[in-house]
Amino acid sequence: MFVLETFLTEGIAQLSYLLGDTASGRAAVIDPRTDVEVYERLARKHGVSITHVFETHIHADFVSGSRSLAERVGTATIYLSGEQAAYEFTAESVADGQTFDFGSFSLVARHTPGHTPEHLSYVLNEAKHPDQPWAVFTGDSLFVGSAGRPDLLGSGQAVELAKSLYDTLYDFYLKLEDYVTVFPGHGAGSACGADIGDRLTSTIGYERRTNKFLSFPGFDAFRQFVIDDAPPVPWHYPELKKVNAAGPAIMERMPTIPALPPHEFRNVSRESGVTTIDTRSMTSFGGGHVPGAINIGDRPEMSAWVGQMFDLDQRLLLVVDDDTDVEQIQRLVVRSGHTEFAGYLAGGMKAWEMAGMPMGRLEQIPVHELREYQNTGTGPTILDVRSPDEWEAGHVPGADHHFVADMRDRILGLDKEQHYATYCASGYRASIASSLMKSRGFQYVSNVPGSWSAWTAEGYPVDSEKEVNHV
Q1: Does residue 55 form part of some domain?
Q2: Given 246, 272, 287, which residue is the final one in a domain?
């Protein structure tokens, strides 16, 4: 029996796959994530052995689990592109057109450069119809409604990679039959492609008719579309590419996180190179928190924002709602490449309060009060911390713009003595921004829970034109 399992890693919107044949007992995993036990568990459920681990390319948005998975199962070989690859660890090299037999099906490697020079895709053929592909695992070259961005290696290679991507899309994918199913490496929400669709799969025929990346008759217009209109590259992507190229450390288990009582937690938080992350909700954080903590809530997107905001060598202290949440939160964090944990606050904020420790607070301003301030001409300066694309699509009238990701190293153009109220789409990123500002010495910062969603739900005015005060 043919086995196909799809794994969606929320927060980074990463897709990986387990394919197997119960008759032959062989299985493959394509682009495994960091926490790999899930693949072993499902392989056991289906009665197959993971013998092959395929990497489509050097990933930029998460730490690969290939080495950890191969070590864990003890039966698998890692297969990497032999085409312009920059891998620094030992594995089997794969050539364009190379076929891997699993019994009832085979996988054929195809060199599909553009997102990266070494990128491979894998075409799936049934053994009964070896010359009629029915599916293709596209990695980060073709997405639902989108395609992989060619600018992650820097502007110096962007045009050359855009040309390779154009050739890959038009000379390879568009020559496949319409019925071929597309299994991409990412879903909606990933920054590896622009405006990726919500569906996890598609077909070549549907993409041929609806995907804008496949609608350009010539390269020049395509180049402008994929390079000039690309969103900002997340800061941590180049760093994670280095980690994945060198070979991520083999993770036999999650790193140990010491449970620290309040006084010891406070002492460790004062050490150089230590960052305190409060993973509670924005309103809980606002009511009382460890001074200097940054609020990145326990949601799937925490992986991306920890990676975006902090260097990989930072030692992380965690504040959690409940001590039993630590392991799940840790899984979100390690996907971003962070494995250095200084500890967590044992007993949470209740223990901190009972120990008589100092408390920080962050005012929460509902949109109704923010609107009243606007009507009276009083109150804080409104700060939009969403992405440039979101800002330009529509924002609160009179707001200034300062993307939260640009605050990681320094906060320019803002007065520490001025009162600011931050908003984003829901308040999640706004709480990251406002807590970061507080930790950097801004005295009068507030957060807007509900943020843009609440503002528009109330029918308040919207300005969709780019303001001159765009910082």
Answers
A1: yes
A2: 246
